[in-house]
Amino acid sequence: MVNKILINSLLVCLILFSSCKKDESKPHANIEWIKIDVPNASTIHSLSGNIENELIAGGLSKIFKTSNQGNTWTVVHDGITAYELRKKEDTLFAIALYNHTYNDYFSLDNGETWQLSPEKSFENLRTNIVTASNGIIYKILRSETYPKQPDKVLMSSDGGSTWIDIFPYKRYIYTIYLDDDDRLYIGANGWEWNEDINSFDSSTGNNKGIIYYIK
Q1: How would you write 37-105 as a 3-class SS string?
Q2: pLDDT, tens digit, 9 for 90 and up, residues 61-84
Q3: Other beta carbons less than 10 A from residue 126's beta carbon
Q4: Structural domain boundaries, residue 53
Q5: 27 located within any domain
Q6: pTM of the model
Q7: How many CB atoms lie within 10 A of CB 91?
Q8: Which residue from 194, 211, 209 is spatially nearest to 149, judged by alpha carbons?
Q9: Residue 17: is its pLDDT beyond 80?
Q10: Nearest to 58 by CA among 143, 177, 161
Q11: Number of structural domains, the chain?
């Protein structure tokens, strides 16, 4: 009788242990991601605004804008790659590459027109970590292996002591962004993951950039 109780207890422990191990590697089940394609963007390097009103995206050599939740996109600036977009009061700044030179541009009409700034700022060319107003931290965990493996998006609700993977898709991620409502966005390129070669296939994607945001 004692042996039977011990065996049953051991089985319960094994089941619980297996369940816990499975949850550690499982993306967060309560998070729903929405995917948006940005045609002719190639890669989404930066984001500003919000999906409910106006969202601005820095693509390869172009800055795009949508006012209808990503159904259509307008090129508002052609010729610069905005690696970072930052809003300060009524001015939108872009740290951008033009003719192989980094410059700062600014817009006073929410991205409709752009001017070259006399000042330069080369810090934080690519955002890797953001913190919501409730203290939740999100960060990109970039793959440093070769060939390139999918990047991860991690979330911490305890100040960075523990992290959980919340992004279930296999993408090459370039930027992470929080809007004023603490909605999280991810910017990526359109390359598809190829299981056969265990790498990204650069021939796929149709020159589109990809945006994911949490619903």
Answers
A1: EECCCCECCEEEECCCCCEEEEECCEEEEECCCCCCCEEEEECCEEEEEEEECCEEEEEEEECCEEEEE
A2: 999 999 999 999 999 999 889 998
A3: 15
A4: 32-214
A5: no
A6: 0.80
A7: 13
A8: 194
A9: no
A10: 177
A11: 1
